[in-house]
Amino acid sequence: MVVCLRNQGDLVGMININDIVRGSYQKGVLGYAVFLPYARQGYMAAGIALAVHYAFECLDLNRVEADIQPDNEASLKLVRRLGFRKEGFSPGFIKIAGLWRDHERWAITRDMELPAVPKE
Ligand SMILES: CC(C)(COP(=O)(O)OP(=O)(O)OC[C@H]1O[C@@H](n2cnc3c(N)ncnc32)[C@H](O)[C@@H]1OP(=O)(O)O)[C@@H](O)C(=O)NCCC(=O)NCCS
């Protein structure tokens, strides 16, 4: 998905819902990035809030996860603010730039308080 500004139509970032598993899991894993000129303006928080609602209401998922490196302060702030909970820590979880990197495991489930849908 792309995150875009409603009025101007500018593309400000992207969001993927990866690794969707159906059946007993009904889960997906978020990937996201802001485009640099639009960073730190709250647009990704708004976009991910919409993506979480889309995942639960349109894709019928029960769980949306985000795997985040412990030093990724911006991403950790983002999911914490949106109401995700930290569920664990996986050493050497994902290979990035040739190295197996540790990740914190965050998730939000349908029964939790969901982030407010942005009006603008
Ligand atoms: C993670 C990312 C999408 C956040 O985008 P953003 O535009 O900063 O998002 P928001 O404006 O909604 O703000 C997120 C929060 O992090 C803070 N933040 C943003 N950049 C930061 C930085 N470099 N250092 C510390 N805090 C930062 C913001 O102030 C905000 O905090 P607040 O909730 O207290 O106001 C962006 O940093 C990014 O694209 N990073 C590279 C890709 C990436 O790491 N993706 C996630 C992989 S898990």
Q: Would you tell me the structural class of the helices and strands? A: alpha+beta
Strand order in the sheet with the most strands: 1-2-3-4-6-5
Return residue spans where pLDDT drops below 50 for at least 5 consecutive residues.
none
CATH architecture, by name, is 3-Layer(aba) Sandwich
Please work out how many helical segments DSSP would assign: 2
CATH domain topology: Aminopeptidase
Shape: globular
**What percentage of residues falls in helices of 4 or more residues?**
10-25%
Bound compounds, each kind once, are: coenzyme A
Mind telling me the C-alpha Rg? 14 Å
Question: Order of helices and strands, N to C?
Answer: EEEHEHEE
Instruction: Give the number of domains.
Output: 1
Mean pLDDT: 96
- Approximate strand percentage: 35-45%
Alpha carbon gap, first and last residue: 18 Å
Under CATH, the homologous superfamily reads Gcn5-related N-acetyltransferase (GNAT)
